[in-house]
Design a protein that fits this description.
Elements lengths: L15 H6 L13 H10 L1 E6 L5 H11 L3 E6 L5 H13 L6 E5 H9 L20 H7 E2 L2 E2 L2 E2 L6 E5 H6 L8 H14 L6 E2 L4 H10 L5 E4 L2 E4 L4 H15 L3 E2 L6 H9 L4 E4 L3 H8 L7 E4 L16 E5 L6 H13 L1 H9 L7 H4 L2 H4 L11 H9 L12 H6 L1 H11 L3 H18 L3 E4 L1
Parallel strand pairs: 1-2, 1-3, 8-11, 10-15
Antiparallel strand pairs: 3-14, 4-5, 6-14, 7-12, 7-13, 9-10
């Protein structure tokens, strides 16, 4: 899982709502459609360009070209998140240079689909594939009767913890958030250099935590948007997280830095609530802690199992592709074929297909780093308890890019997160209106 780079996000959605309002809708880019069109395109062959960043991309391209030797796929790693999205947006505006297929985080799909920049894949029969994917990932790629992408992976959340540190301090694995806060207090009191967890202020993480709490702060119906970052789910989350923020119980070390990884390796940060991509990151970036870490379900508010998705991505066909049918056939193969999904699993991705989620290849993995625990059993159960009907903003990438200006300040000053969330909401309402959306504050 690659986290998004959002510094260039502000320019990504300019005119997005206007494009939707003027009838700029995505389509099949001409040519025959239907499932048969995909077979015909593969038989005829041709060349397509594919932009992606995931570690398995090159291997999947090689496997696809071996299976379909008449097709050439020009793979380009154009950067992740905002870097890639800016390049795609600029190429579309210029009328040339855009890829046929690109990888998108789920949080970014709606801004491109609403702007008419993605091909609707339903005419190729992709609307019949819904039962092949987990509910949370499918809802991220579908809008009404349109399907704009196929899920590649998912990020169901769990708690990853350092068993050695827990055992040394007599900490039992928390099952509720109240227990989690109590453990954070106990651990930091025993050793002021050690923290139970880390969170320096991440907009996507915040949204996922609100999701787990049952919140629905973003509601989108075409160009009509409602933002309520004080709904019941949000308040439920801040009631817990404020105790950590205001009590200075979160590691102050910036996440994803060398020092952060060192603290994960040493045990000075003893747990992380994160997505299914975190085990791979821990294994490669904090190897000295091999054997110490374990996985457990996310703590909950009332004992009822609940998780959320944090991260994950999909492949889509970009508007303007001169061979949309071939591009769609490629997307279908790399995101649904057994061979491609197996490549993803071996690369450490958590799959989105229901078939793979129940496979022994996934469930029976027992990594030495996690003490030979079958951690995917935990993640599989987490994927089944993700609340439905979640929506992202059509400018979620931009929203994450300005999170530090408001909520991030609450983290820095160890003050009430609700005040920061209200500021963030005000900025998002104003921005959405400036882009032509009809935005209502909840």
């Amino acid at each position: 899982m690659k986290r998004s780079t959002t510094l260039a996000a502000a320019g990504l959605v300019a005119g997005l709502a206007a494009a939707a309002l003027t009838g700029c809708s995505s389509g099949s880019s001409g040519g025959p459609t239907g499932a048969g069109a995909l077979d015909d395109a593969l038989k005829q062959g041709g060349t397509i360009t594919y932009w992606a960043w995931s570690s398995a991309s090159k291997d999947k391209v090689a496997a696809f070209e071996k299976a379909y030797p008449k097709v050439t796929v020009k793979y380009v790693n154009a950067g992740s998140g905002g870097d890639e999205y800016t390049k795609i947006t600029n190429a579309i505006k210029a009328g040339s240079g855009a890829p046929d297929v690109a990888q998108f985080e789920y949080t970014a799909l709606s801004q491109f689909s609403l702007a008419g920049d993605l091909v609707d894949l339903a005419p190729y029969g992709f609307d019949k594939l819904e039962d092949q994917y987990s509910t949370g990932t499918w809802s991220a790629v579908q809008s009404g009767d349109k399907v704009y992408a196929l899920p590649e992976d998912s990020g169901p959340m769990a708690m990853f913890y350092n068993k050695r540190v827990f055992d040394e301090h007599g900490i039992t694995v928390p099952t509720t958030w109240d227990e989690f806060v109590a453990d954070a207090q106990k651990l930091h009191a025993a050793d002021p250099n050690t923290y139970l967890t880390s969170d320096g202020g991440d907009g996507l993480f915040t949204s996922s935590m609100i999701w787990q709490a049952g919140g629905h702060p973003y509601k989108v119906d075409g160009t009509k948007v409602t933002i309520d970052l004080q709904d019941s789910g949000t308040k439920k989350w801040t009631a817990v997280w404020n105790e950590l923020v205001e009590g200075q119980l979160l590691s102050p070390t910036p996440a994803y830095t060398d020092d952060w990884y060192k603290q994960l390796g040493s045990g000075e940060i003893a747990a992380l609530v994160s997505g299914a991509w975190m085990p791979g990151l821990l294994t490669t970036s904090a190897p000295e802690a091999s054997g110490d870490w374990r996985a457990a379900p996310m703590p909950t508010y009332d004992g009822t199992p609940a998780s959320a998705n944090y991260g994950g991505s999909a492949q889509a066909v970009v508007k303007g592709s001169k061979n949309a049918a071939l591009a769609a056939a490629f997307v279908k193969w790399i995101d649904s074929s057994d061979e491609a999904v197996d490549i993803n699993i071996k690369a450490g991705s958590f799959p989105a297909t229901t078939k793979a989620l129940g496979s022994s290849a996934l469930v029976d993995q027992a990594p030495e780093y996690f003490g030979d625990q079958k951690i995917n059993e935990v993640l599989l159960e987490a994927s089944k308890s993700v609340p439905a009907d979640w929506q992202y903003l059509p400018y979620q990438t931009y929203a994450s890019s300005i999170f530090a200006d408001s909520v991030g300040q609450a983290y820095a000053s160890h003050s009430d997160l609700n005040a920061g969330l209200k500021q963030w909401q005000s900025a998002l309402v104003s921005y959405g209106k400036d882009q032509g959306f009809s935005v209502t504050a909840g």
